[in-house]
Amino acid sequence: xxxxxxxxxxxxxxxxxxxxxxxxxxxxxxxxxxxxxxxxxxxxxxxxxxxxxxxxxxxxxxxxxxxxxxxxxxxxxxxxxxxxxxxxxxxxxxxxxxxxxxxxxxxxxxxxxxxxxxxxxxxxxxxxxxxxxxxxxxxxxxxxxxxxxxxxxxxxxxxxxxxxxxxxxxxxxxxxxxxxxxxxxxxxxxxxxxxxxxxxxxxxxxxxxxxxxxxxxxxxxxxxxxxxxxxxxxxxxxxxxxxxxxxxxxxxxxxxxxxxxxxxxxxxxxxxxxxxxxxxxxxxxxxxxxxxxxxxxxxxxxxxxxxxxxxxxxxxxxxxxxxxxxxxxxxxxxxxxxxxxxxxxxxxxxxxxxxxxxxxxxxxxxxxxxxxxxxxxxxxxxxxxxxxxxxxxxxxxxxxxxxxxxxxxxxxxxxxxxxxxxxxxxxxxxxxxxxxxxxxxxxxxxxxxxxxxxxxxxxxxxxxxxxxxxxxxxxxxxxxxxxxxxxxxxxxxxxxxxxxxxxxxxxxxxxxxxxxxxxxxxxxxxxxxxxxxxxxxxxxxxxxxxxxxxxxxxxxxxxxxxxxxxxxxxxxxxxxxxxxxxxxxxxxxxxxxxxxxxxxxxxxxxxxxxxxxxxxxxxxxxxxxxxxxxxxxxxxxxxxxxxxxxxxxxxxxxxxxxxxxxxxxxxxxxxxxxxxxxxxxxxxxxxxxxxxxxxxxxxxxxxxxxxxxxxxxxxxxxxxxxxxxxxxxxxxxxxxxxxxxxxxxxxxxxxxxxxxxxxxxxxxxxxxxxxxxxxxxxxxxxxxxxxxxxxxxxxxxxxxxxxxxxxxxxxxxxxxxxxxxxxxxxxxxxxxxxxxxxxxxxxxxxxxxxxxx
Length: 853
What we know:
By secondary structure, the protein is an alpha/beta fold. It has 29 helices and 26 strands. Keywords: ATP-binding, Helicase, Hydrolase, Isomerase, Nucleotide-binding. Its EC number is 5.6.2.4. Residues 132-596 form the UvrD-like helicase ATP-binding domain.
C-alpha cells in the first residue's frame, strides 16, 4: 500500500496527501518517538513484460511498411485482448488512454510517416499518372488504404483523375492485381469515360487491362449471370426513358377494366385526394386569389379558405352535389361589431348547412388559430338550434381519417340528395391530377421501395410514422393502390422473364451476401456516391464484407451535387457514411481546376446555407480575375434571347480582336442551361450555325449537365414560379414514406441543382432573370452574396424585405397606391408608397462590370 501511495504522491504532490491524512508526515514526529517501519515484502510489477508479450503476439501480423487500415486496432484487440494494467504500475497513471486509443494513435503515427515517405519516393508516379501532377489532396486519396474511405470532392476537383490514379497506385505497389480492382460508375457515359482514362493513363501498368470498369447495373447483371448461370434480360419498358411510366399507365388501365373497385379508388384518389392537404396544424399557404378572396381554388372554380375545404368541395363537384360556398346565412346576424354569418357550405336541394371545423382528435384548434375559434363554433351551433336551421359538421380529424366524406355522403343520402360519381366531369377551375402524373408518382414510389429494400413489415412501419400527423385516408388509399399496381408489375416481369434496374442491384447484393457469388475484388472504387440508392449501398457493403477478405472500399462524391433524388438517390448516404461503413475515413478534394475563386466563394456560401451539407473550403488554381457571376433582368423574358444573341456578337468581335481566347479547345465553349427541356432557346440552331466557327454553343438541362464544363455558362429563365427555378412542382409527401430521411431544408435539392449550374463555368456565369418575378435564388445572391443585377429592358425592383423571395410591385387599392410582394398571396407584405422613402431598402444596383473577358 505504501508503494502505491508513494507513486500517487509523486503524481499529485506529497503535501496534498499529508493534509488529507492519507499518509503520515514523519517530519513532525520527534526522531526519538518514531517507530521503525516493519520490513515489507517486495511487490513485483510485471505489467511492462506482459505488454511486451502481448505485442509480440500481434506485431508480426501488422506490416508497418504499408498503410495500416483503420480497422486494424479493433481487430487486434478482438483477437488478442490487451493485458490489464497493474494497480501498482506507474504506466497506468501516466498513460490513461484505453488500449484501443493507444493502438489507434500508434497506427496513425505510423501512417503519417508512411504517407510522407510515399509522397517522396513515388513523386515521379504521382506527377505522371495523370495529365497534370496530382495535388497533395489527390495523393492522400491514393495512399490512404483504410477499410472504407469517403472522398468528398468539390466540383471540378479531379475526382476521376483520383480514381484512376488510385487504381494505378495499387497496381504499381502490388496491392492488388488488375482482376482484383473494380471501378463502379453511376451511368454508361461515366463508365466509358473511366474505361478510356484507365486505358490511356495506365497503359504501362502491369494488369491495367484486367481492371474491371462497370456501371452499378452492369456489374449487377454480371453477378446475377455468374451466380445463377443465366443472364437475365432487362424489361423492354426500361430501355428508353419514360417507357416505365407508360407501363404503369397500361397496368392501371388494365386493372381499371378488370376491377371496378380499383377503377373507383383510382379516380377518387386522383380527383379528390390527388393533392395533399398538408400536415396537421400547419399554417395555411394560400395559392389562389379572385375577387378579393384569398385561398385555394376548387374544381368548381371557387376560392375556399383551406385545403381541407377544397377536398370537400372537389368531392361534391365530382359527385354532382350542388353547393354554395359561404352563402350568406338566411337570418340576419350582423351587428356593429360582427359581420353577417356565412356558413362554409350550403346544399340548396336539401336546405342543409355544413360547417367544417379545424378541430383535431382532442377537440382543439391549431395553435395559429384565433383564441375565440372554439367559442365561435359553439355560437354557430346554438344559432342553428335557435333558428331551426339544419347544420351538419365535419372536423379536420375526420378529414384525416376519411370519416368526414363517409359521414357527409351518408347525411346527404339520408336527406334525399342525389349523388352520382362522375370521374369524367370537366373541371371548371383547378384541373385534377392527370393519370400520367399519378402514374409517375407510383413509379417513383416503387423505385424507392425496391431500391431501399423495404420489406412489408418495414413498409408498414414507415406508413405508420406518416399517419401520425399526415393525411391518413390519403396515405392508406394510395398504399392500397400501389400494392395492386406493384403486384401486377412484378407478375409481368416474371411472365416475361425480365428484371428491372432495382432487381439488378438487389439480387446481386443477395448473391454476394449468400456467398453464391465469390467476389475476387480486393479494391472497390465507386464514383458519384452522392447519387447512390440504398440498393447500391447494400451491394457495396456486400462487396466490402470481411468474409471476402480484407477489401478496401473507396467512394468519391459530393453531397453539394446530390440532384438525383427523383431517381431513388438518398443524399444521406454521404452524411451518414461513417455510420453505414464501420472504420470509415473522410478525405476532401477541395482544390478545383475549373471555377474562378470568386465563383467558388459565391457558390459555396450559397450551398452551405443548408446546415446539413458537409462543410468544406474550396480553393482554385484558376487565375481568372474578372467578374465571375453576372445577372441580367428583363421586364419581358422574351427579350432575353435577343440579349444572348448580342453577347455572341460581342464574343465574336473580341475573338477577332484577339481579346478573347479559348481556355483549352480551339473554340470558346458556351453552355446554355435550363431547368427544363422547354427552356431550349428557339434560336439555338441558328446561333450554332452563325457562330459555330468561333463558339461551341450547346444547350443542356441542368440535370444532364452534371460533369460538364464550359468557358461561359448562360443560365436561362431563372424566374420564380410553379415551373420556374427553383421548381415549385413539389414532390408528393407520399414519397417520404419509402425514403430513409428527407432533407428538411427548404428547396434543398433545387439549391443543389442551382449549385451544379453555377459550377459548370470555367470563367463566368450569366444569369437571365425577370425584373418583376426574379428567382428567390437570385434574390438571395443579391441580398447575401453581393450580386448586382443589370436591368436590360426595365427598371430594377426592390426585394421583398419580409420573405426575400419576391420583389415589391406597385399596386393601386381603394385607399391609394401601395407596394406589395410579387408572391402575394403567399407573402402578405405591403406598405404605403408614402412610406417608401422612410423604409430601409435593399437596392439592386446596376452592374458596372459587363466585361466578358
